[in-house]
Design a protein that fits this description.
alpha/beta, Rossmann fold, 4 domains, seven-stranded parallel β-sheet, six-stranded parallel β-sheet, about 30% helix, about 15% strand, globular
Length: about 900
Amino acid sequence: MLPLSRSCVAMQNPRAERSRAENLAVSSIGNGQPFKSFFEVAVKHEPFGFQTCFANDLHSLVHVPTGLGKTAMAVVGWLWRRSFGAGDEVRCKTPRRLVYCLPMRVLVEQTRDNAVRWLENLREANLVECEVPVHVLMGGEDEEDWDIHPEREAILIGTQDMLLSRALNRGYAASRARWPMQFGLLHTDCLWVFDEIQLMGSGLATTAQLEAFRRLLPEKDANTAENGHGCRSVWMSATMRPDWLKTVDFKDRVDALPRLELDGVDHKSSEVMKRWSAKKPLEKAAGVMDLKSQGPLADEIVKAHTAAKGRTIVVVNTVKRACYLLTEIKKKWPSATDENLILIHSRFRPPDRAEQIKKLKPEQAPIDLSPEGMIVVSTQVIEAGVDVSATTLFTELAPWASLVQRFGRCNRRGAQNEHASVRWIDVADKEAAPYEAADLKKSREQLKAIGCKNEEERDVGLASLSKLNVELPFEHTHVVRRKDLIDLFDTTPDLAGNDIDIDRFVREVEESDVRAFWRDYGDPKKGATPNKIGGQDPNDDDSHAEPAPRREELCPAPIGSDKNPGFRQFAKNHKGKVWRWNFLDETWEKVDAAKIVPGQVFLLHADSGGYSAEKGWDPAGKTDVAPVAPPTGEKGEAPDATDDDRFSRVGVWQTIAHHTDEVCSELDAIVPALPLANGDADALRKAARWHDWGKAHEVFVSALPDNMRDASQVWAKAAGKWKRYGRRHFRHELASALAVLIVPDELIPNEQRNLIAYLIAAHHGKVRLSIRSLPNERHPEPRADGNGRDRRFARGVWDGDALPETNLGTENGKPIIAPEVKLSLEPMEMGLCEQPPFAGQPSWADRMIGLRDALGPFRLAYLEAVLRAADMRASKAANHGASPKEAVHA
């Protein structure tokens, strides 16, 4: 068993950290594969000194100029530490998941491609002994791959909205039922790497607060304070300021964080020196950004590009301005084609975005391009994570930290010193958005000061910028507090169906996004809806409803504001053609524009317009949008719903005993590798053994397909056409959990009963901290019990329901038989229970809140994720492996 990763000596006491020379001399701890050769195989060049230092000590703050390889440092450094080549001691101190968080979404794939290429190089050299999958977390990504293997190494690369929303238990564009599963995994055994933190806005404070909470919750758990649930955070920027991380709960830790910078050792490298001394002469552009007349600026860009050739990059601050400028450049540049005049921004569907990135040719230097060269018009997305160089750079005025990143895109490797140039475009205060006018004023003053210097010193290369002492204040406007995080643990929506809005903790509110996808479901004038394809009556068969979106269909769209209308206004203009899936009622419903919030996903009719492959999201566009065709032969899955039991409705028949044995087997394959506290493994095994007892309930049994119903068998899985549940919103896991609260101590240890009951209830992510009835539930029949009291009901379970004696499989060669019980919903009441069998005992809410506070939200969610992973893996194996005959008789 691998122990939980611990904090390194340098992190606990940075003053006692080894000297830089000692760090560089020690390229491997534990007599394993030297990091130098490991890095050379992966990246195809020797590591710089700072890259070696990071691999040895996992510094928390990385202040390194852009273009020198911070991504390779983090990814390959983590890979080496987790590989057996680094030695067991290093491996055991290193979290098993690398979570790489980027502030911009457009070029996440580039980071993914680099990681995949480095891994492939290492595999070919036999330096990686196990499969390390690389997952991209963006809207619509296949969520089943990364979160059902908690025991495996993995690299997760995503945008801050995707990753931080999941870290706050409200995963954008993810199924509600999976929120807690991913929350638990992202707060346990993870190395979080936050790149280009100067661009993170409100999300930066959240990263610091979460790092603090992992060491504070629960306070009485000394092990938590020591290792932060096995998680560590790394913040990286070319303009790093430690004060940016001094939030209310993390400020006392910041000064002790180990910091990594370039020093004399790195400057001895000829490659570093070429980049450090690369020339980037600065001047002010004559043209200005004016949406009414961009012709003069476009003309200046084309003339500068024609003179220098190579690649010209133009960075503007809004998608709207980028689209307008691209149109004007196309008019001024006779050589323009779709291949050499490229638009890059964040609001494309993934396939179209991939085409734009492919045209960008990031792996090629400007001198390798065609004779006409290339002009790239981009928004801020090109600031972070893109390894692309330009001979000529135009940039709109922006905050200084952003300008430094943009300057890094010019003459990146010092190969165009004779022709390189940087030109800044002034922006009027009224056009400052999405930035503050005061921040632009400071940048303008700094640029003018550089412009007043002699010709040799009018430069914004790395060497020149290092001589400047520019203040970079960072004000945190929204900071997530401990109470907020605790409240977010409960994923149950309020009675109106609303959730806590986390957007202010994830990114700047002005940048808030939803995601849209387009389908042609027939003619709305003839009654077609996403629920009635082509206007035909679906006869209550949900297979006729539009399936859930795939990742490649989703396009980010801004919600908008009073000054900048966005998706809300688009929805108002296209009433009846904008739909959202109702998780509770299992139907696509028309959207109320006033209720649109960040992170939601919307279905649009193809004739609504609003998008083109060339421009991306375009709310003014009137042309029909071509839906992204599904892979050949794939129909698509229905969206998740509260009544959904898709893992029960698989292609085989399995008894509860057989399925339970398989879940326990999967759990036994997971648990030995995990950092579990004493007793956790036993509780997980008990929960796994008893989790599906509720499938013996008459409501579940009555919904089974008719072709193989057999009273002598109690089924957990079935193939064929299921009936709808006789009681709306029925949840078998609630029946299992209530029954487990009743059985004798010799079957369920009383000291672990609450944890076991919680894990059972939560194993589909739909019943967790509270038990309550939902709208439109069927009332019990008769309504009164034998004493004349109203019969309670919740999630399709009624007071007095019975679970029969049930075979739960075999353990240590002996069958486990659950006794017959009569269910009581007394625990759903507030306060102490009054009626037997729970008289004098705490309510469900009291039990679960006490459990959450005792274990802490991170540990409890992690245990929840582990059991769910075992259950989902067993179900997937059954569906893709055994034949129906084998499944029945196994």
